Input
Amino acid sequence: MLTRKTLIAASVSALLLTACGGGSSSKDNNEEVTPVEETGFSYDAGGMITNLTKDVIVAGYDDLNTKAEVFHQSTLTLLNTPTAENLTAAQAAWQIVRVPWEQGEAHIFGPVDALSIDPHLDTWPLNTNDLQTLLDETDGFTAEQVKAFNDDVQGFHTMEFLLFGDGVTDNTKSIDEMTALEREYLVATAEVFQGYTQALYDAWTVTQDATDANSPAYQDLLLTPDNEVYASELGVVEELINGLIGIVDEVGNGKIAEPFGASIDATDTSLVESQYSWNSLADFSNNIRGVQNVYRGEFESNADEAGLIDFVTAADAALATRVDQEIAAAITAIDAIAGDNDMPFRQAINDADARIRIQAAVDALSTLQSALENDVLTLLNDWKLN
Output
């Protein structure tokens, strides 16, 4: 694993050394010296880091893995008993397992990156041409075969396409439109998918390198900083804040803005992620709910625990409240895009009224990103570590 001690940690250490007095003084002993007023704030981040690591991040990956297994079982049921009801159940299971994954993109660092699990599970766009060629030219599929395929013909969006159809006019594929070979491919892909979610959970809780028995669980690196990845608690908090900045930027400036285009004449529906299931807006909303989880220190029923909001409050209570409100406002703005008629995002980008709501969501995300970058991340420079 690469050593990645933070530059901010190094600069803070240098500032502390300077403040403690590293040079000589030529002042006369009788000359009055004006004491330097201490600045900055103190905060013991141990409890917050423990909660976010165990009860938000690891709990989220546990939930993802559990729901991935439920989804896999639903595809097996569909394979063996191809009915409309079982197709609907598998479609719902896909949407359910999508939630913890999208929320988890607020902390997409560590094993999910190092083990390439993100592209294995969520490569977009899907290569529909290659997928169709495989379906046309292959007699059957196993998990071992699918795992060897390129990432753009496996993972979430392959399963989405097989379950929901192309999403152009509707997201209600019928059981009569689904071939036996498609169901077989779906099952194999779901099995591979669940193998990756298990590997991700194990990397956080057992060992980050399955080939090295002495490799620590990734959670231990966050819980006991002063290691090759995190020099101190400051490095962990920096990682957490940058995770929030990264996904807010991706949603606002990538997932929404790129297909939205500069004008209604410059939209590109091919760039809309999760367009087959019409799940795009739920994806975007869950991305920012993941930000809210880390900021508030909450995951599902776990409430009133320490989150980044407590770190920010220690420095500036008004700022902490403002950022919390900006996160909630961004979620509300994304949810509002669908309007009264529940318009999917791929249609909304080409609707004049909906585009006004989309721009409002982009603006809300921009405001949030600015606060995280310019007001929250910079607090690390004023934090006096214990």
Q: What stands out?
A: The two ends are 28 Å apart (CA to CA).
